Amino acid sequence: HFDFLPSVTDTKSINIWGEIGVIFLLFSLGLEFSFKKLVKVGGSASITAVVEVVFMLLIGFAAGKLMGWKTMDSIFLGGILSVSSTTIIIRAFEELGVKHKKFAGLVFGVLIVEDLVAILLLVLLSTLAVSQQFAGSEMLISILKLAFFLVLWFLGGIFLIPTFLKATRKLMNDETMLVVSLALCLIMVLLAVKVGFSPALGAFIMGSILAETTQAEKIEHLVKSVKDLFAAIFFVSVGMLIDPQILLDYSLPIIVVTLATICGKLISSSLGALLSGQPLKTSVQAGMSLAQIGEFSFIIATLGLTLKVTSDFLYPIAVAASAITTFTTPYLIKSSESFYNFLVKILPQKWLDGISRYSSSTEGITTLSDWKILLRSYAFNTIIHSVIIVAIIFLASRYIQPFIAENVVIGIQSTIISLIVSFIIMAPFLWALSIRRIQKTAYSHLWLNKKYTRGPLIAIEIFRIGLGIFF
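User: That's the sequence. What structure does it adopt?
Assistant: Structure tokens below.
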């Protein structure tokens, strides 16, 4: 953008490199993300993340509207502000040596949940951008479609990929392992695009599937150099797409967005952490750690540009706000303890006592009853096997039936044969869905306990068998 320098004019190439950078960046984010970690994160991080995201979506939308922006720009601004930067926070924590403190654990948990929410936001925003209206039914269908394919992909990932890696372990040296990992990532990117999701989503999913395998650490170590290279390319391409003149023209919105990010995230994250039962000190420290935007915000801003639904100025504003909040993050983390001490001095003693009473009373809620254990097991069993059965039915109607009609017999006989074939394939999953006993200990406890009526248990069993018959 400067005349006295040899200028790079091929914007298309810059965009392509940026997209490749996003793919590898999200693949490596997926490798660091694990569903086991998400389960350990538990309720407090989930509540904090959800409160923060909802608040920031509203603050972003309101700020956009107040500045007189279009509805679509305001919605995307809400999305951009709602996700904090994993990369920046991890670097800041490492350099300040606070990685092992209590609030750091909560912050990492919030970041994991936010990554998931960001993926969902990408899907929702792209659906909204394509339909250009709040079509509730379309949105619901796209969420259900996402859930269906996620379960299907993860089942494939849990059963197929670890088996494949185990079988080929002796053939794999470091170079082969690196090439295979990147190939798996790009295959999932292709699948995601074919189904109608963003390439970034596919890369993230494959990363998190590989994070569950025994080779996860080795793959993460091997991919690190590729990720560092392409992350650098991504950030350089982000910089190249920004015209400094736009930054000068939109200096006021940049200041507004930056202030909205820092103040909004500080308040909403601290409030969410307090609601989830964390002490005031942990809540304030977590809130001040999460007060920035980063790589996912660029990806959301890029999505708006590539779908041609947002104005050109939104992208540079997002990057400028991110650059400013990157500088402020370490200072905010450093000063979080002194800010907490300041709050203790100025807040009424009644409030402080109320907060500490609330946080100590919520600690006891986390114990799991037999009902919770049983219902969770049944829910997992029902969702997983239903998705597999639906996938088998789709595949049978799309591929097996036409194949039999063309090559074996025609007419009603081909339908009957394909039904029998698909039913044979479905049989073990139908048995697991409707008949197999789940969570024997919790089940027998509840069955023998006279305090509970046996009605709900019988109803659950009838529902399972009914669902099996329906399929």
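The CA atoms of residues 82 and 166 lie 39 Å apart.
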